[in-house]
Queue: 4 jobs
Job 1
Amino acid sequence: MQYERAAGAAGPPAGTQRLALLVIKPVPVPELGGDPVPHIVRRLAAAGIECRVATTQPNQPAAALVREALACGPPPDLVVAAGGDGTHGPVAAALAEASAGATSHGDSDAGPAENTQPGARTVPLALIPLGTFNNFARSLGIPRQIDAALDVIAAGHSRAVDAGRVNGRLFFEVAGAGWDATLFPAGESLKRGNVAGMLTAVRSIFRFQAGEIVLLLDGARRVASRTPTVVVANGPYFGSSFAVAPTSRLDDGLLTVTLFEGFGKADLLAYFASVAEGHARPDPRVVSHRAARVEVLSPPTLPAHADGEPIGSLATAFEAVPRALTIFTPLPQPPSAALRSTARWSIAQPTGSREAQGATPSGPVTPEAEGIAGDAVTTGTPRPGSQTMRWKVPPRPAPDADAERTDR
C-alpha cells in the first residue's frame, strides 16, 4: 500500500502533510460516479492529508488492515474508516486495542492519550458514513453526507470516547445476553447461505427459555429481573438505527443496562419493532440502570453478542472502557430535542465511579443532566441516584436511497 495523492489536488507544501490510512469497504456511491475513493482522497489532500488506501475484502477484514498498518513501519497520523457500522466498529476496536497496548500499567483508569509509554502515541480515528444506518457515526453527530463528514476531518476537532468490553471483545454500540443473542446466528448463517446453520440457530431461538436473571452492578448492587434479555448499551443506537438506549453517552464511563420485566418473546419483538418505527409508548416494565461493570450472577450461561456479532456463551462481566479511543467529531452542538427514552431509570454510583468523581452530574437524572432538551414526565419522588422518567422515542432515519450500501 502506498500513500496516494489525487492528481491536481491542492494542498499544503510538501513535508507538512499528515498521513492517513483510509480503510474503505468497496461500495458504489452513485452521486460520486460510483467509486468514492478518488473524491475522498482529493478532499483529504486539499486538507493536507495524504492517504494510503486499504480496501476491505473477505480475506482482508477492516481490523486486520489496521493491525497490519500499525505493525509495519511508522504508524499513520490518523485512520479514516469509510463504510458502515460493520467497518467502523472493527476499525475502532483495532485502534482502541493498539492504544491499550501502548498505555502503561500504572493507572488503569487513565485514558490512552494520558498515560502512554515513552515514545508511544495513540492514533485517532475519523469516520465517513457509507452504510445504511451508521449507528456509531450517528451517535457522535457525524453527518451522513460524505462531504460534510470530510469537513469534520478537515476541521480537526477530536474527543475521547468510551467502549464496552465483554468476553474479551470491544463494542461501541450495544452488547447483550439472553434471547436476543440467539437471533444473530440465524442472521449470520442466512447471509452466508448456510442453511443448516440457520436451521440450528432457529431451533435455538424457539427453545430458549427465559427465567430470572440476577445482575451485580459495580460489585455493589444486586438486581433481579424476569427478563428474556439483558441489553447493555455504550451508545444510544443499535440495529436499524433505533434508539435502544436514547440517553446513553459515549463519554461518561458508564454502560446503560436495560431489562424487560415479564416480557415474553413476542412482547420483546413487538417492543423492538415499535421502537424501530418510532412509536413506542412508555412501558413501566422497561427499566434501565447505569453502571461501569455489569456481572450476570445467574443463570450461569447465557448466549451473548457484541455489536450484533455472536460471541458464544457469556463468560465475563460487561465492563466500560473509559476513553478507549480518540475520534474526530463535530464541534459540540445544542442537544437534539428528538432523543427520548421510554424506560424507567436508576443509576449505580459506587465510590470511585466517573459520576462520583464529577465527570457527569450526580443525583437525579434530568434532561439537563443527560444533555437532552425537552419536557420530561417524571413519577415518584426524586432522590439521589434514581428517578423515573418517560420519554417518547425518535423515529429511525430513512435509509439511503442507495440500496447497494449494505454495511449496516
Job 2
Amino acid sequence: MPVTNMIAFIGGTGLLLILPGPTNALLMTAGAERGFRKALPLVVVELMAYAIAISPLLAFNELLGAWRAQGGMVLKSVALVLVLVLAWRLWRSRPGAGNGPLVSGPQIFWITLFNPKSLIFAFAIFPPVTGATDLLGKIFIFAGLAILAAMAWIGMGMVLASKRQGNIPQAWLGRMAATVLCAFAIYLGISVVAEAGAMFL
C-alpha cells in the first residue's frame, strides 16, 4: 500500500471509528458502569460484528452496483429499529440485585452489526483493494484503530464515573445512554426519509 494511501486510510478509518454513534455510546456506558478492565471484552465483540458486517459488503461491492443505495437504506432502517428498541430498554432499566449490566455483549454485537458506518468502510474507505497483501494490511490497521477507539470511549466512561466517585445510579446511566441513542435515531430517521424521497419521488 503506497504511503499516501495508507495515510488516507488511517485518517479516514480513525476519524469514522472515533465519531459518536450507538456502539460508542454503549461502550462509554459500559466503561462508566463496570470500569475499564471489565468492559474490555466488549471490544472483541465489536470487532467480530464489524468483521461480519463489512466482509460481505466489501466482497460483493462491485456486484451490488446500483443496489447499494437500496441496501444502505435497508441497513439504516434496521439500525433505526434496533437503536430505538435498545434506547427504550435502557430508559426503562431499573437497578436491582437481580439485574445484569446495562450493556451486554449481544447488545454491542447487534448494534455494531447494523451500524451504518459499515457501509462507509465497505464502499468508501477500504476500496480499492489491490491484492491480498493490501487487504491484510488494511484489516490489521482497521482492527488496531477499532481497538484504540473502543478503549478511548470506555475510558471516557470510566473517567466520567471516577469524577462522581463511582456513584452514578444505574438508572441515570441507562437514561443518559438512551438519550444519546435517541439523538442518533433521529439522524438515522432523517437520513432514511431523505434517501427514500430521493429514490422514489
Job 3
Amino acid sequence: MPRLEAAYRERKSNAEEMVKQEKSHAQNLNYAYSWRT
C-alpha cells in the first residue's frame, strides 16, 4: 500500500502547485488590469 500513498501525496502536491499558479496568475491579471486603467 505505500505506493498508493505515495501516488496520493504526489497528486496532492500537484494540486497545491496548480492552486498556487492559479492564484499568481489571477494576481498578474489584477495587476495588468489596474495598470491599464
Job 4
Amino acid sequence: MLNRFYTDSLMYGNLIKHQALEYMTLVEQKFQKKHFYQPLFPSMWFNQRELILPEGCNYAYTMLNDAHKLHAIEIYLQCFQQTFENNALLELFCYFVGEPCFDQLRTKEQLGYIVRADTRRSHGVQGFRIIVQSARELDYVNQRIELFIDSIREYISTMPDELFKKQREGYMIKKLEVPKGMKNQGKKFCNEITNHQFCFDRPQLEAEIIKTLERNDLLRFYDHYVSPHSIYRRKLALHVNPSSLVLQKPIDEKNTNENKDQLDAMKYKKSLSNTYKERTQIEATVPADVNHEAIKLTEQLVMIDNLIESKLKQIEQNLSKKELNLPKIEWIDNIHMWKSKLSCYPLAQSYDKIEVPILYQL
C-alpha cells in the first residue's frame, strides 16, 4: 500500500517561499529512505471526468433514505465546461434566480424547509440546480419546480433596468469581498490546488467579465440550457424517498416542522429587535450630514426591495394559473449500465498551465 503516490501541498501563513521548499524537502527525504516507495508520474494520476448528458434528456434516479421521513429532490441542468466566461454567466444567473426561488417555493408555497438554487461544479463541468427537501410527494414538487423555472424568463426580461444593474453590482461586490480570516482564504487556495486549476485571482478576473454581462446574455443562456421548452436542455433529477423502515417510526414530522418554523420566527423577531437597538445607538453618535446621506441610501434600498417584492408577487400570480407539459421521465434502473452508455468530458485544464515536475527519481 502507498508504494506509488504523489503529493499536492499547500503551505500558507507566516513563512516565505524558501522555507516552504525546505519543509517539502524534509517530507520527500523521509520517503527517499524507503526504497519501496516510488513517485507516481503525472500520466498515472487518477483523474476523474464528468459524464456528458445528451441534449433533450430527462433522466431521473431514485434512492431510499433510512434516516428521515422527508423527501428530497435535486434537479440538475448540465450546462458547459468551466471557463472564466461560463463561470461568470452561470453565477450571475444563479444570483438573480436565488431569491425568487426561495421566496416562491419556500415562503409562499411552503414546499419544504430546505430550498435553494445554485451552481453545481464537478471535475471542470458545471450546471444549474435546485434542491428542495419536502414532506410532499416528489412528483408534485418536481412539477412546482418546473413551473417556477418556466417563469424565470419573464422575471428577468421584465425587470427594470435600474434593478438589473443594482443586482449585477451587488453580486460583483459580494464576489470581491475579502475572505474573513485565514481559514476561508486557505480553503479557496486549497480548492484551486485540488482541482488542478491554480487560478488564485479568480474572483478579480471573473468580476471583470460580470461587469460586461447584459440582460440578453442571461436570456440566451436561459433559453438554451434552462428553459423547459428548450430541445437542448439536459436534465438529471435525483429523488430521495423515505424507506419503509423509517416510515414505521412514530415521529410526528408535522409538529417537528411547525416547531422549527416557530423557532425561526422567534429568532427572526429577536434579530430585528437587536438590530433596532443597535441602529438607535449608532444613529445617536453619527453626525447630521452623514446621517442624512445614510437615510437617502436606505430609501434607495427600500425602493429596490419594493420593486423586487412586486416582481415576486407577479411570479406567484402567474404560477397559480399555469400548467406545464413536461417531457416523459426516463428512469435510471441500473446506474452502472447507464454510465457505460455515456461519453465523458475532457479532463479539466489548468488556467495557468502549470507544469508539475517529477521532483526525484529512484
